[in-house]
Amino acid sequence: MQKFCWMILAIIIVGGCSQNEQGREINDNQRPNITEVKNTNIQETDRKSGAETAKRLTNLAVKVPHVNDATAVVLGKYAIVGIDIDQDIDRSQVGTIKYSVGEALQQDPYGAYATIVADPDLNERIREVAADIENGQPIRGILNELSDITSRIIPEVPGDPVEQTPNKVMSEQKQTIDNEQEQKMLEDKQNKQSNDHLD
């Protein structure tokens, strides 16, 4: 009887283990392909070539009319160029100057991914970052500062120009007219309602 119990126990253990193996085969076949990714670290960039590229981009930016001075910070293929323009320039012309600088930089292979900034505060922060890079400050701190700067701006880079089709221009003009008419109707309605409540 004792031999019989041991045999049944052995059969159950062997049977249970074989079920486990079959379950693994099914799970291995049902799992999607897994891609292994290596852990990457921030790689140090060549500061000398970045400084040379920054100097090249600032020289290109200064050649644009109304640009007094420029500062650039380059990390990899990306650059932020801060421009100092004449104070007496009208605000509407600032966008045109930034666009002109962007076109000049786009012609250069190192300026294709450049962001142009004309804000004096951001320009000063870019100068500080450039000085930190020249002084050999740690890259991580510089990257944090650059991320703060870029989060405050919208790139002013001439990309693929959006061509206006006549239908699109007409619909935009019509929408402007409709908005003006709706605005006037709303103002009239508000005036009427407010006048009725004054009595």
Automatic annotation (TrEMBL):
Biased composition of type Basic and acidic residues is found at: 175-199
Annotated region (Disordered) at: 156-199
Return the InterPro entries for the record: Spore_lipoprot_YhcN/YlaJ, Spore_lipoprot_YhcN/YlaJ-like
| tRNA processing listed as a keyword | no
Q: Provide the coiled-coil residue spans.
A: none
Q: Which GO terms describe its biological process?
A: sporulation resulting in formation of a cellular spore
- What Pfam families does this protein map onto? Spore_YhcN_YlaJ
Name of this chain's protein: YhcN/YlaJ family sporulation lipoprotein
Q: Where is the composition biased (Polar residues)?
A: 164-174
Write the record's keywords in alphabetical order, separated by commas: Lipoprotein
Look up and give the organism this protein is from: Peribacillus asahii
